[in-house]
Write a structure and sequence with these properties.
It contains 11 helices and 9 strands. By secondary structure, it is an alpha+beta fold. The protein has 2 domains: about 190 residues, Lambda Exonuclease, Chain A (Alpha-Beta Complex), CATH 3.90.320; about 70 residues, no CATH class. The longest helix is centred in the last third of the chain and has 29 residues.
Length: about 300
């Protein structure tokens, strides 16, 4: 289904297959808070990136190859489907296998993702998406077909699993209650840019924090992180000292270098000199930027 404005609006009316892994905290692409804000219409839909664009362009190619490989017919479903009991459980299928009837989800990815598909393994986010579609449509089977690195084709077959469906149902019902009530989930590590965009400007006010968060743990973790960064730097300096003037270093028995320490050049603008010698030019092109800096007391 094309990403029309009507389709994007319809997605805010329920929970879809690409949402369920994020709601579970198992998506590498999206957080529960991002899904919540999307469903509430409080953030704008992001434009397609190159990965998404080429994924759609290659969808037909992968679908045809799946049909040829398995000697079956597949067709598009150009409408949104709904769960028979929970109308806000929705599905936008890539394709449907005609006979025996099954969901067909199509994926593309880079060569680095090949390892995640070895020996019939399926990335968790894609598995939950396919299982969500089976649950919504009540189809008993699903296939996930993928083209990885532009030249490696893999496919995985799934049967319905009532236990996983119960888990997804409970999770989705609880999450949709939060959406309806306007109660956002807590941010995760994925939400740095999202939180910053939501609150870009500090105001001259102060608040008292709730007692629910473990604030002391933040100080402990930041101290531990600083110690780990120092240890990393120390180990890197030891390796650099051993390498001396060499730009490549091999571990014993390796055919490829494990470490590189090469020359790298770049051009920079001497703003201090520019301001001193050509102040009018400096003022013409100087640009002030504002950002919020988070600090912890005692650091």
């Amino acid at each position: 289904m094309n990403r029309t404005s009507e389709w994007l609006k319809a997605r805010t009316q329920g929970i879809g297959g690409s949402d369920i892994a994020a709601i579970a905290g198992l998506s590498p692409f999206k957080s529960p808070l991002a899904v919540y804000l999307d469903k509430r219409g409080e953030i704008e839909s992001q434009p397609d990136n190159e990965r998404m664009l080429w994924g759609r362009k290659l969808e037909d190619v992968v679908a045809r190859h799946f049909a040829e490989t398995n000697d079956v017919k597949v067709h598009r479903v150009n409408r949104m489907l709904h769960h028979p009991k929970y109308d806000f459980f929705i599905a936008n299928l890539d394709r449907v296998v005609v006979s025996p009837k099954a969901v067909l989800e199509i994926k593309t990815g880079g060569a680095r993702q090949i390892a995640n598909w070895q020996e019939g393994e399926l990335p968790t986010a894609y598995e939950l998406q396919a299982r969500w579609y089976m649950m919504v449509t009540q189809m008993r089977e699903a296939y996930v077909a993928a083209l990885l690195g532009g030249q490696e084709y893999v496919q995985v077959h799934l049967d319905r699993d009532p236990e996983i469906e119960d888990y997804m149902t409970e999770l989705a019902l609880r999450f949709w209650e939060m959406v309806q009530a306007g109660t956002p989930p807590e941010p995760t590590y994925q939400d740095t840019d999202l939180v910053r965009s939501m609150h870009p400007q500090a105001e001259p006010i102060s608040i008292v924090l709730p007692e629910s968060l473990d604030y002391a743990r933040l100080s402990v973790l930041r101290t531990r992180l600083k110690e780990q960064e120092q240890e990393v730097t120390q180990l890197e300096n030891c390796i650099k000292s051993i390498m001396g003037d060499a730009e490549l270093a091999y571990l014993p028995g390796d055919e490829r270098p494990s470490f590189t320490w090469k020359n790298q050049s770049r051009m920079t603008l001497d703003t201090k000199r520019l301001k001193a010698e050509l102040p009018e030019v400096y003022e013409q092109y100087a640009r002030e930027t504002t950002s919020r800096v988070f600090r912890v007391r005692g650091e």
